[in-house]
Amino acid sequence: MSFNNNLDQLYRSVIMDHYKNPRNKGSLEDESVTIDMNNPTCGDRIHLTLKVEDGIVQDAKFDGEGCSISMSSASMMTQIVKGRKKEEALELAEIFSKMMLGEEFDVDKYDLGDVEALQGVAKFPARIKCATLAWKAMEKGVKSDNE
């Protein structure tokens, strides 16, 4: 088995782990920003709640339904933005968008952790909207929060 096959297998298992055992599933109450978005092309839906205080994403939870790419991406996104400044969360969304489009991005700026497992999605243009849905919801939520 080649290195790329091993890497693809690892990435698939990371994606399936987040799909079967989603992190931060649920919703936040009180003073949280709520964003509902869907992908009408394939039916993916996300309900994202963010708690932003003092310019920092204190907490993030999601609910919804969709394919393994969509739901695992939401799980990974909520993990990586928690505790980040709003500006950092938006930068991460920009990096993720570049990754999905196969563009160059600064790999050393942030440790993307499990999010790297989604880079193979760039090879499947029809699935990019699945992967980016949660990130677009997060961007909308962070930008709409006017503390």
TrEMBL record:
<feature type="domain" description="NIF system FeS cluster assembly NifU N-terminal">
    <location>
        <begin position="11"/>
        <end position="130"/>
    </location>
</feature>
<dbReference type="GO" id="GO:0051536">
    <property type="term" value="F:iron-sulfur cluster binding"/>
</dbReference>
<dbReference type="GO" id="GO:0005506">
    <property type="term" value="F:iron ion binding"/>
</dbReference>
<dbReference type="Pfam" id="PF01592">
    <property type="entry name" value="NifU_N"/>
</dbReference>
<protein>
    <submittedName>
        <fullName>Nitrogen fixation protein NifU</fullName>
    </submittedName>
</protein>
<dbReference type="InterPro" id="IPR002871">
    <property type="entry name" value="NIF_FeS_clus_asmbl_NifU_N"/>
</dbReference>
<comment type="similarity">
    <text>Belongs to the NifU family.</text>
</comment>
<dbReference type="GO" id="GO:0016226">
    <property type="term" value="P:iron-sulfur cluster assembly"/>
</dbReference>
